[in-house]
UniProtKB/TrEMBL annotation:
<comment type="pathway">
    <text>Lipid metabolism; sphingolipid metabolism.</text>
</comment>
<dbReference type="GO" id="GO:0006666">
    <property type="term" value="P:3-keto-sphinganine metabolic process"/>
</dbReference>
<dbReference type="InterPro" id="IPR020904">
    <property type="entry name" value="Sc_DH/Rdtase_CS"/>
</dbReference>
<dbReference type="GO" id="GO:0030148">
    <property type="term" value="P:sphingolipid biosynthetic process"/>
</dbReference>
<dbReference type="GO" id="GO:0047560">
    <property type="term" value="F:3-dehydrosphinganine reductase activity"/>
</dbReference>
<protein>
    <recommendedName>
        <fullName>3-ketodihydrosphingosine reductase</fullName>
        <ecNumber>1.1.1.102</ecNumber>
    </recommendedName>
</protein>
<dbReference type="InterPro" id="IPR002347">
    <property type="entry name" value="SDR_fam"/>
</dbReference>
<keyword id="KW-0256">Endoplasmic reticulum</keyword>
<dbReference type="GO" id="GO:0000166">
    <property type="term" value="F:nucleotide binding"/>
</dbReference>
<comment type="pathway">
    <text>Sphingolipid metabolism.</text>
</comment>
<dbReference type="GO" id="GO:0005789">
    <property type="term" value="C:endoplasmic reticulum membrane"/>
</dbReference>
<dbReference type="InterPro" id="IPR036291">
    <property type="entry name" value="NAD(P)-bd_dom_sf"/>
</dbReference>
<keyword id="KW-0443">Lipid metabolism</keyword>
<comment type="similarity">
    <text>Belongs to the short-chain dehydrogenases/reductases (SDR) family.</text>
</comment>
<keyword id="KW-0547">Nucleotide-binding</keyword>
<comment type="function">
    <text>Catalyzes the reduction of 3'-oxosphinganine (3-ketodihydrosphingosine/KDS) to sphinganine (dihydrosphingosine/DHS), the second step of de novo sphingolipid biosynthesis.</text>
</comment>
<dbReference type="InterPro" id="IPR045022">
    <property type="entry name" value="KDSR-like"/>
</dbReference>
Length: 302
């Protein structure tokens, strides 16, 4: 049986590693992103990992955040070539950080359209066929910053929180059709997108983020693909990832009795640990503010 996986943002970083991971397991791949050179480059890289000579990597150049009918059309065309999508991974996204008052209003609009609407459109385009076939996996790539809000991420965090609401509601709708939704919450991950983000990241954001160490995209991708295949609603990585997911489970669907029991038992402990983290984040913010005030005074008197 041939399995077809479609990965938005599949030309770079985490998305590319997810595509490689699926390809290694024998899937046919559709990569969706804007830049055609990067798409072709990624296609070549992915094809090195083939396990049989029938496997295909198809590239689609489209902006997932702009025009729904265009997204729907290209996905339809891809499905005509490679068959219906079994797994959709919504990984196209971007991050911009800065203090609330320093971020352009257009940045809020941009992040919401790429990170949120850019996940709605492809999902909306594949869901009807998935429901008809009674098969499917839809993966959303949120972020640890979609589990807690932190300094500098007023625009980014909200776009990543939005994904969670979408995923919870959608999962309740499609579960009877044997379709499983996964939301991934990666920590900082060493990708071209992360390097770009770091160019304008406020000091506070960097110091707070450094609480959790930077992951390799291959490792994040492996975990996401594994959780998606197993039909886990939650996908996280590392001990902080585990604690954050358990602590912020809210009314998220539960995948196993063990998972539910672990959440019940660990809640109080993890909240206690979280209070210490929150205290340390506040003191980072205060320290940075005092440092800036000091250097301003020094500049004036110099
Ligand atoms: N790296 C990190 O630290 C973390 C990342 N994440 C999330 O993981 C996802 C991937 O991140 P990462 O691998 O770092 O990012 P990269 O910048 O390395 O890759 C982003 C991918 O998305 C594509 N893309 C971006 N905007 C659009 C668009 N409007 N339409 C279609 N494709 C688009 C890019 O291609 P092109 O530009 O050609 O369109 C590229 O393929 C993002 O959603 C990010 O928020 C979550 C937690 C941590
Ligand atoms: C029990 C409680 C445990 C608490 C642990 C708290 C850790 C907070 C660190 C948050 C880091 C945010 C990473 C965002 C990554 C991202 O999305 C961008 N890099 C995208 O490019």
């Amino acid at each position: 049986m041939r399995v077809s996986a479609e990965v938005t943002g599949g030309s770079s970083g985490i998305g590319k590693c997810i595509a490689i991971e699926c390809y290694k397991q024998g899937a046919f791949i559709t990569l969706v992103a804007r830049n055609e050179d990067k798409l072709l480059q990624a296609k070549k890289e992915i094809e090195k990992h083939s396990i049989n000579d029938k496997q295909v990597v198809l590239c689609i150049s489209v902006d997932v955040s702009q025009d729904y009918s265009q997204v729907e059309n290209v996905i339809k065309q891809a499905q005509e070539k490679l068959g219906p999508v079994d797994m959709l991974v919504n990984c196209a996204g971007m991050s911009l950080s800065g203090k609330f008052e320093d971020l352009e209003v257009s940045t809020f609009e941009r992040l919401m359209s790429v990170n949120y609407l850019g996940s709605v459109y492809p999902s909306r385009a594949v869901i009807t066929t998935m429901k008809e076939r009674r098969v499917g996996r839809i993966v959303f790539v949120s972020s640890q910053a979609g589990q807690l809000g932190l300094f500098g991420f007023t625009a980014y965090s909200s776009s990543k929180f939005a994904i969670r609401g979408l995923a919870e509601a959608l999962q309740m709708e499609v579960k009877p059709y044997n379709i499983y939704v996964t939301v991934a919450y990666p920590p900082d991950t060493d990708t071209p997108g992360f390097a770009e983000e770091n160019k304008t990241k406020p000091l506070e954001t960097r110091l707070i983020s450094e609480t959790v160490s930077v992951c390799k995209p291959e490792q994040v991708a492996k975990q996401i693909v594994k959780d998606a295949i197993q039909g886990n609603f939650n996908s996280s990585i590392g001990s902080d990832g585990y604690m954050l997911s358990s602590l912020t489970c809210g009314m998220a669907p539960v995948t196993s009795i063990t998972e539910g029991l672990q959440q019940v038992v660990t809640m109080g402990l993890f909240r206690t640990i979280a209070l210490f983290y929150l205290g340390s984040f506040d003191s980072i913010v205060r320290r940075c503010m005092m440092q800036r005030a000091k250097s301003e005074i020094a500049d004036k008197t110099a």
